[in-house]
Amino acid sequence: MQTYDFIIVGSGSAGSVLADKLSASGRFSVLLLEAGGTDRRFYVQMPLGYGKTFFDPAVNWNYKAEPDPGLAGNADHWPRGKLLGGSSSINAMVWIRGAREDFDAWAAAGNPGWGYDDLLPVFKALEDNQAGADAWRGVGGPLHVTDCSDAVHPLTKRYLAAGQQAGLPLNPDFNGAAQEGVGVYQISTKNGRRMSAARAFLRPAMKRKNVRVATNALATRVLFEGRRAVGVEYLQNGETKTARAGREVILSGGSVNSPQLLQLSGVGPSALLKGLGIPVVHANENVGAHLQDHVGINYTFKGRLPTLNQTLRPWWGKLLVGMQYILTRSGPLSLSMNNAGGFFRTDPAATRPNMQLYFQAFSTVIPKSGERPILTPDPWPGFSIGLSNCRPSSRGEIMIRTSNPRDYPRISANAYSTEADVAEMLDAVKFVRKIASMPDMAEIIEEEVLPGPSISSDADLIQDFRKRSGTVYHPVSTCRMGPDPSRAVVDPRLKVHGIEGLRVIDASIFPDNITGNTNAASIMTGWKGAELVLEDQK
Ligand SMILES: Cc1cc2nc3c(=O)[nH]c(=O)nc-3n(C[C@H](O)[C@H](O)[C@H](O)COP(=O)(O)OP(=O)(O)OC[C@H]3O[C@@H](n4cnc5c(N)ncnc54)[C@H](O)[C@@H]3O)c2cc1C
């Protein structure tokens, strides 16, 4: 059995950074196990290829959540990246860090070092922001962030104007002084190609002799000697293999897989493990519990002006944008589907935003099987204003169903299971209609297609968003960080409570969800986690 200093499970947003930072000095050997394969695929590299990878089993775990009473009984599709770069290789690339108050609350909950002022230097150091450096933005870091202000669809201007007419400020940088307002989203790309964590961190690290990346390698169990993690068992090409960790095993499998692997390895809720015949190494009821996620919905309109639908749908339009992309790495295919967005408060008395907006200059009301039909949108000029909650109070869980590592765990999201979450979403969808009713939007709207004008009472609006909402892919907190072993899975240094030589470093450790998309904070967690690991090495 080969021994490495560190074994990292998962090459996603956090795992890619860890592989880079732990190997950079040349002092330590690193084995990175990734269940998926390469990220060198056209639809992964091309930003709008998102529509293709959304259901593609070659790069996506394609989880299905349990039928959710809060979502009118729907079983939601849960994409997660299964390839180098993990979910950062299939995500929508919106670059949002989260709010100062989010991280300050993490620190106040007993996690020193995780406040905004502690983390701002990390956020700045990891990025190379095209908009230039200032008090909040960084330049010269490994991850390029693109400023799309000049490239977005012309309709975006109308959305920004209508947002201001509805009372929101124009915000030039959601990662800057304040989050509230409408604005153009910064995205994680460079020269028209996706800037995943693999591209920014892992690919450069893979050139080092002390880094070994095993792809198509599914970690099936953490190996223990007593309460010390000493290695990992994994499946590769039908063979069961093991590797030994001289220093630490680090789980970076993400919010679905990290709790799953802990549970499979005997760290988790004792009744669950015993019921499945898994020997309990360390009982902890929090493993897989406290799941938090953002849920969202689109309001879709038929416009009087051409939208991206007219560009992307016809064969000649596809040819044109395809040529534009291949020759100049620009145009709609080089952008996120979310050109713009924003943050707002449903309660004017609240001190900060609780809702996020997305503006998409195209529409995909007509479904297409096995694909999110971004590249073949509706035949009429459609566009959407999307919306998701930021800090919902509903909680779910992710628990294994069997002791077989290849079986997917049970994902119970429990969306809209609190009155507060329903009430704020009701206020929020009304605000989306307010934006649509403002002069700059109203002028160009032919009709509201979804949900449509017949849906207007509170009861109908609630029924509609229960039926049509879904995850916006930001699950967190299933291995949450906290000082109290009876309430958390990892301590503030990301060490698994009650176990030696084992950490979890990915989005699953967020004590609470952040106000915004979770990729930047996951990458930050990888960076900060690597610093903690390195500090602890003699
Ligand atoms: C469709 C989609 C759209 C999104 N859009 C955005 C967006 O626009 N902006 C944004 O900020 N965030 C977005 N997100 C969320 C963001 O990408 C994730 O929060 C972030 O990537 C999570 O990082 P992670 O390191 O926790 O896990 P991941 O990046 O998911 O990495 C986990 C890795 O571990 C591997 N793995 C898991 N289990 C095992 C195992 N047992 N053995 C070996 N390998 C294993 C996986 O294959 C994967 O590569 C989106 C996510 C999705 C899925």
From TrEMBL:
Pfam families in the record: GMC_oxred_C (PF05199), GMC_oxred_N (PF00732)
Co-factor(s): FAD
SUPFAM superfamilies given in the database record: FAD-linked reductases, C-terminal domain, FAD/NAD(P)-binding domain
Flavoprotein found in the keyword field: yes
MF GO annotations: flavin adenine dinucleotide binding; oxidoreductase activity, acting on CH-OH group of donors
Keyword ATP-binding applies: no
Binding sites annotated in the UniProt record for FAD: 91-94
Protein's name according to its UniProt entry: Choline dehydrogenase
